[in-house]
Specification:
Polysacc_deacetylase_ArnD; binds zinc ion; alpha/beta; six-stranded parallel β-sheet; 8 helices; globular; two-stranded parallel ribbon; 42% helix; hydrolase; TIM Barrel
């Protein structure tokens, strides 16, 4: 049954970004475009930062924490968590944590996102993360912005349709290193706001 506009009033959407070294050539302006659009439209989000990426882009990494965005941990080497030994997993997560803290001044705990979504249903991985002080955060809506031929309008359409279908509490996954993501961002924000959504950080989802 279709929801009336009244039922849609002020439902929450958490836009989340995996901020990482791209697995194909990244557009140099991608992350910048995303950050500028979020600032212009006064939207708070959550950034899962790869430690090794923060090391390579310290100025941009510092900027991720401005404008009230929440910082999470996206591992250091972006390896599959299920492929690591318990010691390897702990070492990688802690190294990312120390790197993110040193560069941004923010502790990413307790927010963690597994690279490739690998390990999100593995009790051993989740228990290891828990021991390190983390909870794993997956997503319900994949923007599919990582696809080679993704375009801004296409990404925006996918996100608006799926987040609206999910309703309150939708967590959306983006990758800021593609130009499609930057181009989609104004359309996503305006489109979801028109549908009654408000943007929250993961710590506001409760
Ligand atoms: Zn990733």
């Amino acid at each position: 049954m279709a929801k009336s506009p009244r039922q849609h009033a002020s439902w929450r959407v958490a836009l989340t970004f995996d901020v990482e070294h791209a697995d194909r050539p990244a557009h140099p302006d991608g992350t910048r475009l995303v950050l500028d659009t979020l600032a212009e439209r006064d939207v708070v989000t959550t950034h899962f930062v790869q430690g090794r990426w923060a090391q390579a882009h310290p100025a941009l990494a510092k900027e991720l924490t401005r404008h009230g965005h929440l910082i999470g941990n996206h591992s250091h080497h972006h390896a599959r968590m299920t492929w690591l030994s318990p010691q390897g997993l702990a070492g990688d997560v802690r190294l990312a944590e120390q790197t993110i803290r040193r560069i941004t001044g923010h502790d990413p705990r307790p927010w963690f996102r597994c690279p490739f979504g690998d390990g999100t249903d593995d009790p051993a991985v989740l228990a290891a993360l828990d021991r390190l002080g983390y909870q794993e955060v997956s997503w319900q809506v994949d923007a599919l912005d990582w696809r080679t031929k993704a375009t801004g309008p296409q990404v925006a359409r996918t996100v608006i349709e799926q987040a609206t279908a999910h309703g309150d509490g939708a967590v959306v996954l983006f990758h800021p290193w593609t130009l499609a993501t930057g181009r989609a961002m104004p359309l996503v924000i305006d489109g979801l706001r028109a549908a009654g959504a408000r943007f929250v950080r993961l710590d506001e989802l409760g």
